[in-house]
Amino acid sequence: MPKKIRCSLDDCKAVAQRISGDCAFCGGHYCSNHRLLEDHKCQGLEDCKKEAFEQNAMQLNKERTQVIKGV
């Protein structure tokens, strides 16, 4: 039987959540209490925020209403 993966947070000994506990930004494996970026103080949190901001800005620019002059 394979060994269960434990939470990557130093003080936590809980079992890491499959899929939802895997952090794409730091590569850690976290339990349900520490799976969110803010909860495990992820090193990639600022990159995540920047990426989300850029995606939102692009989407807003695509959806911006165009003003047609002379109609």
TrEMBL record:
GO molecular function, one term: zinc ion binding
Keywords: Metal-binding, Zinc, Zinc-finger
Classification via InterPro entries: AN1-like_Znf, Znf_AN1
Sequence ranges assigned to domain AN1-type in this UniProt record: 1-50
PROSITE patterns: ZF_AN1
Keyword Chloroplast belongs to the record: no
Full protein name: AN1-type domain-containing protein
Originating organism: Podospora australis
